[in-house]
Design a protein that fits this description.
Helices cover about 10% and strands about 40% of the residues. The protein is mainly beta and about 350 residues long. The protein folds into 3 domains: about 1-130, no CATH class; about 150-155 and about 255-345, Beta Barrel (OB fold (Dihydrolipoamide Acetyltransferase, E2P)); about 160-240, Nucleic acid-binding proteins (OB fold (Dihydrolipoamide Acetyltransferase, E2P), Beta Barrel). The strands form 5 sheets. It has a 5-stranded mixed barrel. Strands 14-15-16-18-17 form a 5-stranded mixed beta barrel. Helix 1 (about 15-35) packs across helix 2 (about 60-80). It is globular, with a radius of gyration of 25 Å.
């Protein structure tokens, strides 16, 4: 017999306990699918440590697991083989479910809907928020002579395809190699942030050496305040020694170092800690969106101006002289010493 146990620190109270049941059944399907479809999980249990309760969950049979696997494959095809948009996923909150201590099913709470518990309700048109209105492109900011022209999220591009020569390579056991490349007389450090791509394949070939020609696909190019160029390889990037007929005509200087963007603020966050040198550090950030895509922006606390403290959820904020980066499909922004935040259309207006 095969048993899977999911240990929860909670008491099992509330709507979330309903998700745990499907989560465990998914574990059972994954065990069966990854063990040559010969090993079937017979027992599923949730241990609620906060309530000192063990809740048994009915394990799915082969027919049910086959159906679950087919549904996941269909969803994968829908997401990966098509160009998705926010219109394909309208807000459709499901009814709240009721669970008492130990994950025991009971009547759902009265006079309450899922949106009441959602952190995004105030800015979601499916909750109590309003429909997103595309802000202006050009802004005249106090203290600036020339207007600031923003770039729509859909036109933000930080990924490039280029060929280059390896300038140096240093191998380390158990770690990705340190690689420096050169192209058209310009040098950059190749930073391998992910050793496997989203399909599980290696992001770089073995045995690379000096003067080899490499082809860099969907890499992210950034520079620091000193002008040092870094080419980043993440789960949707690839380094190959064959061009495969693709266009690799970009250069190391094709990227744009700073951007001006505008969007609606979803929330702010702060983090702090003690560094290796024993000094305290503090970072601040926020997430803005344009109705279809979000961007997480962060930076050292001292680099944010006073309008960061004034900005509220739902405000339209302009971020100028911003550095952009990316991880997989998520764009990320970095506030620097010369960056600026302006609240250009407060939600209270």
């Amino acid at each position: 017999r095969i048993k899977i146990v999911d240990i929860k620190a909670s008491k099992g109270i509330g709507d979330r306990s309903g998700d745990y049941i499907e989560q465990l059944r998914m574990y059972a399907m994954l065990w069966w699918a990854t063990h040559q479809r010969k090993e079937v999980v017979t027992d599923l249990e949730i241990w609620y440590l906060g309530a000192n309760v063990v809740k048994p969950v009915e394990a799915p049979d082969i027919q049910k697991m086959t159906q679950m696997e087919a549904e996941i494959k269909q969803l994968w095809v829908q997401l990966k083989d098509n160009i998705t948009s926010i219109e394909m996923f309208p807000a459709n909150p499901s009814p709240l479910r009721g669970y008492s201590q130990g994950g025991v099913s009971q009547s759902p709470p009265e006079n309450e809907v899922r949106c009441d518990r959602c952190d995004w309700s105030s800015i979601c048109e499916g909750g109590v928020g309003t429909e997103y209105q595309q802000p202006a492109i050009e802004y005249h900011l106090p203290g600036l002579i020339t207007p600031v022209t923003t770039v729509p999220f859909s036109q933000l591009n930080v990924r490039f395809n280029l060929s280059a020569n390896i300038d140096s390579v240093i191998y380390h056991e158990g770690k990705p190699p340190e690689i420096k490349i050169i192209k058209d007389g310009y040098r950059a450090e190749l930073e391998i942030k992910a050793e496997k791509n989203q399909d599980g394949l290696p992001t770089y070939p073995q045995g690379l050496s000096k003067d080899d020609i490499v082809y860099l696909q969907n890499v992210v190019i950034t520079s620091n305040y000193r002008g040092k160029l870094t080419v980043k390889v993440d789960p949707i990037s690839m380094i190959t020694i064959s061009s495969d007929g693709a266009d690799y005509s970009d250069s190391l200087l094709n990227f744009r170092a700073r951007w001006d963007i505008v969007g609606k603020m979803a929330y702010k966050f702060e983090r702090s800690g003690i560094g290796r040198n024993g000094r305290e550090w503090r970072r601040k950030g926020l997430v803005i969106f344009d109705g279809k895509q979000s961007i997480k922006v962060s930076g050292w606390a001292n680099d944010w101006g006073h309008q960061y403290d004034m900005a509220e959820e739902g405000d339209i904020v302009l971020l100028s002289n911003l550095e952009l980066d990316a991880w997989a499909n998520q764009l990320r922004g970095q506030i620097g010493r010369n960056s600026r935040l302006d609240v250009v259309n407060p939600s209270t207006a």
